[in-house]
Amino acid sequence: MAISFELEPADVELYEAARELLLTAHHTDNHRVAAAMRGASGAIYLGLHIGSKRVNICAESSALANARMAQEKAVKSVVAVSMDGNGQPQVTNPCGLCRELLRNYGSETSVLVDAEGRVGVISIKDLLPYPWVRAAEASWVLEPPIAGNHRANHRGERTG
Ligand SMILES: [Zn+2]
């Protein structure tokens, strides 16, 4: 797992954009999380959690929709923030659904994460190394489970 704690000014700018949105739009039930996403063009897109008692849509999804509506071909980086106990926005890790969603839209996306108290940057590939894939759509041939110690390459062919 390759996490970096050397943040770029662009990472901090992304965080500030999400923070500013949450300070403006936060609502205990309806808008608990804000997200900011940088597209390949360098532009920043915002997203906001929308929710009710029973339905919650993550902030990352609307940020992604905004980026796609602006014709962004790829997502460079993303951050989500939620309120801490003192009403201050802090970095929040993407949930499992968002990891799968983000991974589907690009495997090179960087994600700002709360690494147990330190904000770091990590690749979505490291957050979700083995995403769900339909067996029939995999680009490899998967051999059946074999007991014991064996090695296989990514095509499923034995190498030794
Ligand atoms: Zn989520």
Helix coverage percent of residues?
25-40%
Please name the fourth-level CATH homologous superfamily.
Cytidine Deaminase, domain 2
Give a quick account of the main beta sheet: strands, pairing sense, barrel closure. 7 strands, mixed
Which sequence of SSEs, written as H and E, runs from N to C? EHEEEEHEEHEEH
- Give the strand tally: 9
Q: Give the class from helix and strand content and strand pairing.
A: alpha+beta
The top level CATH class name: Alpha Beta
Overall geometry: globular
Bound ligands, each once: zinc ion
Q: How many structurally independent domains?
A: 1
Mean pLDDT: 93
Q: End-to-end distance, in Å?
A: 27 Å
Radius of gyration (Å): 18 Å
What does this protein look like?
This protein has one domain (3-132): Cytidine Deaminase, domain 2. A hairpin with a 5-residue loop joins strand 6 (75-83) and strand 7. The chain is globular, with a radius of gyration of 18 Å. The strands form two sheets. Strands 1, 2, 3, 6, 7, 8 and 9 form a seven-stranded mixed beta sheet that branches. It is built from four helices and nine strands; from the N terminus they run E-H-E-E-E-E-H-E-E-H-E-E-H. The protein has 160 residues and is of the alpha+beta class. It has helices at 9-25, 59-69, 96-104, 124-127, and strands spanning 3-4, 33-39, 44-48, 50-51, 56-57, 75-83, 89-92, 110-115, 118-123. The model has no long low-confidence stretch (mean pLDDT 93). Zinc ion (ZN) is lined by residues 58, 60, 94-95, 97-98.
Key attributes of the depicted protein:
single chain, 160 residues, alpha+beta, Cytidine Deaminase, domain 2, seven-stranded mixed beta sheet, 4 helices, globular, binds zinc ion
